[in-house]
Amino acid sequence: MKHFMQVVCTAGLLAGCASGGSVGVGGVGIGGGGGSGGVGVGLSFPVGGSTSTAESGQADCEGDVYRVQPRYPEQAAAQNYSGRVTVSFNVKLNGRAADYEAAGDKPFFDETKRAVMRSCWPAGVRQSWVVNYQGGKTATWVQNALSGTP
């Protein structure tokens, strides 16, 4: 299906360019326009989408459980900056995180959230974790003992 979608998109882009239409970025937008009236019809759709129903755009975990390792943010690493982020979230039945909350050192928020959202968790179990970023090099997961989560 993905290959078919790419072929359709490529053909649509070429047709749009050849007819004086417009092409958008961030998905594909094909704008119509013809004649001297300047009136056209537009069509927009995502490219390379997933068959998932998860809001995060990630596929269901299908019973897999794993944690994606956070990357140390480049700027924090360059400054040898250390910190920690405490996160808690619910896990949907498909194993994906929802209702994400974070506290701690803001330079590490984005990367921590990315790792949580890309991970697969035990379905239906609330999670609470601390991610320690140390010495500009390592990021480690530690289960938050204060949460009451086993």
Task: Give your account of this protein's structure.
The protein has 150 residues and is of the alpha+beta class. It has 3 helices and 7 strands. A 4-stranded antiparallel β-sheet has the order 5-4-6-7, with helices on one face. The chain has a 3-stranded antiparallel β-sheet with strand order 1-2-3, with helices on one face. It is elongated.
Task: List the main descriptive attributes of the protein structure presented here.
disordered N terminus; single chain; four-stranded antiparallel beta sheet; 7 strands; 3 helices; three-stranded antiparallel beta sheet; 150 residues; alpha+beta
The total beta strand count reads 7
> Strand order, biggest sheet?
5-4-6-7
Distance, first to last CA: 41 Å
Instruction: Categorize the overall geometry.
Output: elongated
User: What do the pLDDT scores average to?
Assistant: 72
- Helix/strand-derived class? alpha+beta
